[in-house]
Specification:
single chain; 20% strand; alpha/beta; Rossmann fold; 36% helix; 7-stranded mixed beta sheet
Length: 244
């Protein structure tokens, strides 16, 4: 059954992204495989075609508003889940060198199948927790860009992601809603981890209010970070202690 691509093509045009027929087909194949696999494994609550186009595909690709992907860059997608934003970015910008990381092995097996089905080069999917992978010298401070759509406090997310970024590189967090307070409370953590002042870029995606938080890596992350598994979430760096 053919899919109505009107919304997708209009969104791509707005983002100034041009795809050939093969790339469009890759998005359609990815959608079909995602929905098929979702019947037996919980990958996404969003399954209706137009919603997946808007809330997964176009949202992932919105990164082009703030970052130039038309060049060879090494990207880590941390906590990628079903492959967002990494897989849409790879389809649209095949030159990128992409690593997808997630702590759930079932998802990684799904992503490895996606990589094979879509014929990607320079793409891998790794089963690991951020806290452990961030101490692995093969990955620590090896990336031009780390992205994450994971739902987590920005201070915690920064501890998970900034250690992977090389000096002069960037960590970009996908966010929604009002984030000013969260950004304000993350500044100490970001600074401790070697990041510069967070910058917020807000935009509308159809009916949704979306934001990017951009953090440039200014200096190397101290060896103490990331802390052991679970700690960044339980005790976010630099957060005010609760008053008793």
């Amino acid at each position: 059954m053919s899919k109505d691509l009107t919304k997708f093509l209009a969104g791509l045009e707005k983002l100034k992204i041009s795809l050939n027929e093969e790339q469009i087909q890759q998005f359609l194949d990815y959608y079909e495989f995602l929905i098929e696999t979702n019947k037996v494994m919980n990958l996404t609550a969003i399954t209706e075609f137009d919603e997946v186009i808007e809330k997964h595909f176009l949202d992932s690709l919105s990164l082009t508003r703030v970052y130039d992907l038309r060049r060879e860059v090494k990207i880590l997608d941390m906590g990628t889940g079903a492959g967002f934003p990494g897989i849409p970015l790879k389809i649209a910008f095949p030159k990128i060198d992409l690593v997808l990381a997630d702590s759930l092995n079932k998802r990684i097996k799904f992503l490895q199948d996606v990589i094979e089905k879509l014929g990607f080069q320079k793409t891998s999917a790794i089963h690991a927790r951020a806290e452990e992978l961030g101490r692995n010298q093969d990955y620590r401070e090896q990336f031009d860009l780390c992205v994450s759509r994971a739902v987590a406090n920005l201070a915690s997310l920064s501890e998970y992601c900034i250690p992977f970024v090389k000096e002069g590189g960037m960590f970009i967090s996908y966010k929604s809603g009002e984030i000013e307070e969260e950004v304000k409370q993350s500044k100490k953590a970001v600074s401790l981890l070697g990041g510069g002042m967070p910058k917020v870029y807000k935009f509308d995606l159809c009916e949704q209010k979306r934001s990017f938080v951009l953090i440039e890596k200014k200096k190397r992350t101290p060896k103490a970070y990331p802390r052991k598994a679970g700690t960044p979430t339980k005790l976010p760096l630099g957060q005010p202690m609760e008053k008793k």
